[in-house]
Amino acid sequence: MKSNKKQELYEAIHMGNSPRNPVFMWSSSAVSEAYQYEAMVDWSVWYDLVAESKNVSILIYSGEFDMLDGPLTQEPWLKALKTLAGDNQAMWSKPRKIYYVHDDVANQDIVGGYYRTDDTYKFTFLTVPKTGHFVPIAQLLTTKTFLKDIITKGSLQCHKQTEAECETGAIMCGYMNGCSKQGTCSSTTGKCICNVGFTGADCSDTLINLPQAGNFQQSYQVQGVNWLYFTFSQTAATPFSFSLSSQN
């Protein structure tokens, strides 16, 4: 750095008394080499070992704007953990909860994130909105709140008057088109349970049942892009085959 005010700059970044030489550099090859070993190491086994004790609270959080270490890249290895996968997928079978934090300045509750928890292993995965890699800097209030929850309560808390206000199952059901009157929506999972003969997120698709015996031939006329759903139940060890053809 060739500035004639280097000392003032060092003071500004709190490095005025640093014994390093040079005092400041943009990057360090020594640090890069030191971290190179850890860059491609799979540490998930250690999360399993800690989770197996069932007495340590684990929180993994990601900023939704982070494309490298964000929610999209975290979920695959979390789902592969033996502890979480072996608990009947409890962490993934229910919709995420809303994590509210209270803004004392504005005197209102704001959404600090969305999270899933495996209560058996005290394992929580939190997605923090409006931030990327540096969650504590961009979302300081949320960070302070979830750290306090984990340290004092052992898990994230619903900071609303009722627990139901943090649940999203009922909200999701409100967008399921009444399950097209061909099923019922579970407020626990936020998903439709379709009646026999129907499928799809909102039960709006009809299942075509293929008979188990005899030759079955049927033609269907569709326009544009359409999906047809077929179901077949095999009850005997009888060979069978399916063939589909299209005509313009």
Please state how the strands of the largest beta sheet are arranged side by side: 1-4-3-2
Query: Mean pLDDT, as a whole number?
Result: 87
Tally of strands: 9
What's the CATH C level of the largest domain? Alpha Beta
Instruction: Provide the CATH topology of the largest domain.
Output: Rossmann fold
The percent range for helix content is 25-40%
Largest sheet geometry: 4 strands, mixed
| Class from helix and strand fractions | alpha/beta
Radius of gyration: 27 Å
Domains (count): 3
Distance between the termini: 71 Å
Question: What is the CATH architecture assignment of the largest domain?
Answer: 3-Layer(aba) Sandwich
Which regions are unreliable across 5 or more consecutive residues at pLDDT < 50?
Answer: none
Task: Give, in order, the helices and strands.
Answer: HHHEHHHEEEHHHEEEEE
Contiguous helical run count: 9
Q: Proportion of β residues?
A: 15-25%
Give the overall shape, derived from the CA principal axes.
elongated
Summary tags:
248 residues, alpha/beta, Rossmann fold, Laminin, 3 domains, four-stranded mixed beta sheet, three-stranded mixed beta sheet, 9 helices, 19% strand, elongated
